[in-house]
């Protein structure tokens, strides 16, 4: 059973990753492991209390198939998280980030320097500079104005594209036999 890490933090936008975690666990048989900086309850933006399975320090050497990062308004991006992101990038494991915080985590770790991506942050304002304490971490020449962008093992998505995000991660793990099967599943979940 492959292991997928999901990073939890206070104020995370849990709806962006709930469906993909459900599909990966129930349909793909993946072991979803939630991680956080500390062993304590995390409160999502929706008000859900989430209890992480382990801390980042406990998964440093764990063999994983990927890392999923969700959005949120603010996240403290510590060196331990950046090391994990860089390790997954170096090993060409799935790096899937959605929304504001998710894409900022990838940008700050430097993995978007050589990849095309999307983000809801089309401009780095003084507010973001104040909140994150950094200059714009995004390599703006690599930005693509789309709902979702996949560049090799890196998937980035706008906050509203959580169904597209789910479909593309499923495609990454080859859960569809062909394009028609992916399209049929998309019609089913989107109702179109």
Automatic annotation (TrEMBL):
Domain DJ-1/PfpI: 3-170
Species: Turicibacter faecis
Protein name: Thiazole biosynthesis protein ThiJ
Matching InterPro entries: Class_I_gatase-like, DJ-1/PfpI, Prot/Nucl_acid_deglycase
């Amino acid at each position: 059973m492959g292991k997928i890490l999901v990073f939890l933090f206070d104020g995370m936008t849990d709806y962006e990753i709930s469906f993909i975690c459900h599909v990966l666990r129930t349909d793909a048989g993946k072991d979803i492991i939630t991680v956080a900086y500390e062993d304590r309850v995390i409160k999502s933006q929706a008000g859900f209390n989430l209890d992480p399975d382990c801390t980042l320090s406990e998964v440093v050497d764990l063999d994983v198939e990927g890392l999923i990062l969700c959005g949120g308004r603010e996240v403290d991006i510590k060196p331990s998280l950046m090391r994990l992101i860089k390790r997954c990038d170096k090993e060409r494991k799935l790096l899937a980030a959605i929304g504001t915080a998710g894409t900022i985590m990838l940008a700050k770790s430097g993995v978007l320097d050589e990849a095309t991506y999307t983000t809801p942050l089309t401009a780095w304002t003084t507010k973001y500079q104040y909140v994150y304490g950094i200059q714009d971490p995004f390599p703006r020449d690599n930005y693509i104005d789309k709902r979702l962008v996949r560049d090799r093992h890196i998937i980035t998505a706008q906050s509203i594209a959580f169904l597209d995000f789910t479909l593309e991660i499923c495609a990454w793990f080859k859960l569809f036999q062909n394009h028609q099967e992916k399209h049929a599943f998309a019609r089913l979940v989107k109702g179109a």
